[in-house]
Design goal:
The chain is an all-alpha fold. Helices cover 52% and strands 0% of the residues. It is built from 3 helices and no strands. It has one domain (3-75).
């Protein structure tokens, strides 16, 4: 696998992981008892910490990518292992 493929797949894992990690620990202004800014949506986060999200995302995506790469190198799970529909009709 070339380094550009490794980078592209890692970045995909990073973005997906970021969307999974982002909602954890977020509280609204009402939940924290903080004054809302005029015009602020009721559901807007009052304690969003992007550096914390990026740090957790980086570590978690590195672990997930490591598992992906180990599977790629060792062939533990292949496409034929996740075929839930069975063989197509007429296939040998």
């Amino acid at each position: 696998m070339s380094w550009t493929s490794i980078l592209a797949i890692y970045l995909l894992f990073w973005v997906i992981t970021a969307f999974v990690v982002m909602p954890f620990g977020i509280r609204t202004a009402d939940e924290l008892g903080v004054e809302k800014v005029r015009g602020q949506a009721d559901s807007a986060p009052a304690n969003f910490r992007p550096l914390r999200v990026m740090a957790i995302t980086t570590v978690l995506s590195a672990v997930v990518f490591g598992l992906f790469y180990a599977n790629y190198m060792n062939g533990w799970i292949g496409a034929e292992d996740v075929n839930i529909f069975g063989k197509p009709p007429g296939a040998q």
